[in-house]
Amino acid sequence: MGKLNVTNRTKVKRLPQRASYETEVIYKILDGALVCHLGFIYKGSVNIIPTFYGRKDDLIYIHGSYNSRMLKLFSSGEDVCLSVTIIDGLVLARSAFHHSVNYRSIVMYCKPEEIIDSEEKTKALEIIMNHILQDRWQEVRKPNQKELDVTSVFSFKINEASAKMRTGPPADDKEDYDLDVWAGVIPIKTSYDKPIRDELLRENVVLPEYIRSIEK
Amino acid sequence: MGKLNVTNRTKVKRLPQRASYETEVIYKILDGALVCHLGFIYKGSVNIIPTFYGRKDDLIYIHGSYNSRMLKLFSSGEDVCLSVTIIDGLVLARSAFHHSVNYRSIVMYCKPEEIIDSEEKTKALEIIMNHILQDRWQEVRKPNQKELDVTSVFSFKINEASAKMRTGPPADDKEDYDLDVWAGVIPIKTSYDKPIRDELLRENVVLPEYIRSIEK
C-alpha cells in the first residue's frame, strides 16, 4: 500500500480536503462498488458505458463481447477514464444552497491492456465474477474455449487515480441554524431482495449459502 | 411523447432488441435514477464526473459551483455525454458465460446551455432538488442572489438519446439446464435507512411527512 503520484488529471482542485491518493482508500472504494462507468473517445465524441469489473492488487479487469465497439477501440491503446461512484446519503441542509451528498468516488485514467492468454483470461473472469458475487465462480460451469474466444478481457493498471469523498452532517450558514427546517442525513444503501429462482431450475437445487448470506 | 431520431451515436448496435428511443421510456428511466455521469473532453482527455440532475419535459438540468472546471468547460458549447444506469438485478446463469444483469440505462449526447436569468436558475434548482427528494424545496431556505451568483446551472435538451434495458431470468445454453447450479435473479434496489437528525437541529422540528414516507 502507498500513495499514487498526483498528476494534472487526478489532482482534485474543488474541495481538495475531500481527496485521497492513498491506494488503501482507492482500493476499498473500488471493492465496494458494483459498476463502473468507462469514458472513451469514439469518432470525436465522448462515450460512456457502464460495466462490471473486478480488482486484484493494482489491476482492474473488465470484459465484454469481442465485437463490442468499445472493446475494439480499447485495443488501440487510447486512454480511458474510469469512474466509480457510491452514494452513501443525502445531506439535507436548512438552505437549498448547502444541500450536499455523502459519497465515495474514484476517477482513474488508464490505458487498457488486452489479455490474450486463455488461462489469464479465465483468471480475470473469475475475479470479475467474484467481485459481483463472492464465491459464485466456484459453482458455475466455467467458460470453454469457444466462449473465451468471443470474450475480450482488458486490464487497467491503477496508477493514475484519485478518490474523493464526503461524510457527516450538513454544514449550514450560521444564521440558518435558527430556522425550523429539518436537517440531517438520509443514508442510502444498495440492498438485495429475496432471490428469484429460475423456473427451469432443477427442483433439488437449493439456494447456496453464499447467496443466502447476502440477503438483507 | 414520441420517438427520438436515431443517430449514429445513439444507435444501439449490440443487442438492439434491448434498445428504445421512445421518450416515454427514456423519461421514466431518467426520473428513476438519482445520479448521472457526465463525460466531456478536457485538454484532450476524457473526464467523467458524477452529478445530481433533474428533468422537466425534454430538458435535464444540472448545477454546480461557478468555478468548477467542468462547468466552465460547458460554457464553451462542446458536446457532452450523459449516462444514467440503474441496476435492477444480478442474473445468475448456470454457465459463467451467460451471467448477465437486469438494468435500465440511458446514454445521451447534448450541448449544455447555460441558464443566466436568476428566476429561471431558481426554477431549475427547484427541479433538481425535487428530483432528489420530492417536496424538499418547499421547506428549505431558498437561494439568495449571492448564492445564485456562485452557482452555474445548465440545461441539456433530450433529443439525442437511447435507452437500453434487460429484464427477466437467465438464458442458458440448452445442455446446461441439466446442471445442478443455482440459477435465477437477485433483485437489487437502492433503499433509504432511518434519517439521522442533525445534532444542531432545533428540538421542536419533527421529521416531515415527505421524508418519513420515503423510509423503507
Structure notes:
The structure is a homodimer of 216-residue chains. By secondary structure, chain A is an alpha+beta fold. Chain A contains 5 helices and 12 strands. The model of chain A has no long low-confidence stretch (mean pLDDT 94). Chains A and B meet through strand 2, strand 3, strand 6, strand 7 and helix 3 of A and strand 2, strand 3, strand 6, strand 7 and helix 3 of B.
Offer a few descriptive terms:
homodimer, 216 residues, alpha+beta, Pnp Oxidase, Chain A, 4-stranded antiparallel beta sheet, 5 helices, globular
Set down the secondary structure blueprint:
2 copies of one chain form a homodimer.
Chain A: E1 19-20, H1 23-32, E2 35-42, E3 45-52, E4 54-56, E5 59-65, H2 69-74, E6 80-92, E7 100-110, E8 113-115, H3 118-132, H4 145-149, E9 151-157, E10 161-166, E11 184-192, E12 196-197, H5 209-212
Antiparallel strand pairs in A: 1-10, 2-3, 2-6, 4-5, 5-9, 6-7, 6-11, 7-10, 8-9
CATH architecture of chain A: Roll
CATH class designation of chain A: Mainly Beta
The structural domain count of chain A equals 1
Query: What number is the mean pLDDT of chain A?
Result: 94
What general form of chain A does the structure show? Answer: globular
CATH homologous superfamily heading of chain A: Electron Transport, Fmn-binding Protein, Chain A
Structural class of chain A comes to alpha+beta
Biggest chain contact:
A-B, 91 and 92 residues
Which stretches of chain A of 5+ consecutive residues score pLDDT under 50? none
Please report which band the strand proportion of chain A falls in: under 5%, 5-15%, 15-25%, 25-35%, 35-45% or over 45%: 35-45%
Order of helices and strands of chain A: EHEEEEHEEEHHEEEEH
Oligomer: homodimer
Computed over alpha carbons, the radius of gyration of chain A is 21 Å
**Topology-level CATH name of chain A:** Pnp Oxidase, Chain A
Could you give a short account of the major beta sheet of chain A?
7 strands, antiparallel
Number of strands of chain A: 12
Helix content of chain A: 10-25%
Rounded to the nearest angstrom, the distance between the terminal CA atoms of chain A is 32 Å
